């Protein structure tokens, strides 16, 4: 009761603070010195509101107190400088070379592990150690590695490694074994520790359709082949071209190499850039699946493109020891710079100086004449843009086409023209028909070739030629094509 009354009196008098009240409550104000100190600080506000009475003595005292407290806080803040640890001394050249050899070389397939440190005088050799009756390990054949050498590296004796290699070579060529092939080995008990362990068993997958095993039977190594059934049904992949033929074919499951081969084959017959989004691609790829589950995907066998009104089918075929792509009619790849402008035509007049049959004097003949029946179709020799179309003096009905690379072609004496100046034409597109207009003695095509606006001999240009299958070869070709087209779409 006395403590409460004392606090009430103190608060009513307006003097002191909560700390003063608590001090008095616990009897701490009994000494004269403490009482005098409290009386001196009773009128001082230690927590100053810096937003009020700006510029007064109390405000400046509060600012000084805040500044001092902030400085004290920053002075006790931890440092952010990194602590630098002790750096190891650099390796000597010999140590660095040895470290690099032992760290990198063992990572390669079939690599030897390099030099080894010999034992010092501090190493005491054991008089005897027990050995396991058999040990199982794996040898890996490296690129350019020998089969016998890989076995020796794994711990097989040189004579037995060579004997095993000879046995395997009777079944297949050692060069056919792919790098990275893992060989499972079982080494038996040896008579003493001074010789290599004997080879008890060796097994590896030689091919998709063959596994080979070498076993020790009656103290002799014998080869035991294990044939594996393989399904060689090709893999057929179809789909819509969409925004990108390559991306669509890859998304459908076609290997990247097969898609690249498909595009190269198609480029021989159509402009790849002209393939539309709604066109459909058709790929048949060589594929083998073993009974044990492993698979192998080979090259592209068939390439098809459905453009709606037109379907292009290409089949890879070996002709005279060389593989090329033939369409369903047995026509192979076209090679050369330009296409013949008139089919089944013969040259009636060559390039150069000649006596003109109508004008009656000699002058330069800037092209060659192809004799052909009236109305025979005339094809554009290659892709280009028509630069002239119409009557051209002695040329009669005349068309001139500008091609990439500074090349140009001219077609004269037409009976009818089908293209106009500015038209884009493709190789093989019909641009008109054979006639006898202008200075002409009969139906023929006067064909000109220009290089940088200078006339050159058209016979110096390589015209496209395509291989053609016939007879029994064509029959076998069509039978193979029909068999492949019977393949079901995968998935």
UniProtKB/TrEMBL annotation:
- InterPro entries noted in UniProt: Cell_wall_metabolism_enzyme, Csd3_N2, Dup_hybrid_motif, M23ase_b-sheet_dom
- Kindly state which keywords UniProt assigns to this record, in alphabetical order: Hydrolase, Metal-binding, Metalloprotease, Protease, Signal, Zinc
Q: Which GO terms label this protein's molecular function in UniProt?
A: hydrolase activity
* Pfam families assigned to the protein according to its UniProt record, in alphabetical order: Csd3_N2, Peptidase_M23
Report the leader peptide range: none
Ranges where the M23ase beta-sheet core domain occurs: 363-458
Name the needed cofactors: Zn(2+)
Source domain of life: Bacteria
Q: Which SUPFAM superfamilies match?
A: Duplicated hybrid motif
Subcellular location(s) of the protein: Cell envelope
Its predominant location is other
Annotated Csd3-like second N-terminal domain residues: 235-351
Report the protein name in the record.
Murein DD-endopeptidase MepM/ murein hydrolase activator NlpD
